[in-house]
Amino acid sequence: MVRMLHNVALAGMVFLVGGQVYAQDSLSVDQSDSLDLLEEEVYEPLDSAEFAALLAPVEETAEERASKRSHVAIKVVDKASKEVIPATVEVTAFDNGGNVLFQGEGQVDENGIFQLDLVPARLELTIVSEGYLPITKRVALEKNGEVKGKISKMYGLTKLSVGEAIPLKNVTFNEGKFALLPESHGQLDALVKLLEIHPDMKIELAGHTDNTGSPAYNQRLSEDRVEAVKRYLVKQGIHPKRIKGVGYGGTKPIVTGVNADSKKNRRVEFVVLKL
Fold this sequence. Notes:
The protein is an alpha+beta fold. It has 4 helices and 18 strands.
């Protein structure tokens, strides 16, 4: 007799008796607290191939995989105080090939929460709030090929202040070049949104390089990169008089020394001149 605590159903069970493997298609347990294994229950021996098949993982079909969804919940707060702030969340979902599946936006609720359900995709979130520096974050909906069912994150936004230099970390170029790479667009679009919701804001774009090469070359490269960023912003509708562009070459490094990672000195920043 097997004692059971709850009503359960045991399907596809594998038993090992006297060194021999047996299988039973299903064994249902009713609401009573015990079960008699009746004499007429017959177990057929399995060969090794059949036993291996029972233990093998079941592969999902494309349809089964597509039916799985992830629930994403994010909370937006002031980075310093951790208090909830109003914010707009812009969502872009990509397939594994980098193609855009959909785009949309929504507002956080009174608790600072934004939620959505979607099938597995590469997700990019841009979070914008008046008076704060926007951020762009990428969220993985899969890990090691498995769909994450629930994802929750909290993001803190930094309050803007006049005179503070803010690095545009995702604005990138090929080495020695000044053409914007496609992955730069997300952060620059967030900067466009920031300038749109602050119509009186004026900024300075500051370009910096490392000290590889001649000072004259680095100065010109920093100026060209700043100009490329400014052109992008103007193309998106920002008036050029709101943007001051300055190239500093390698004159303002953030890391120095023989063993320093000079790549950190290659950057574009923006400085709020007026809010």
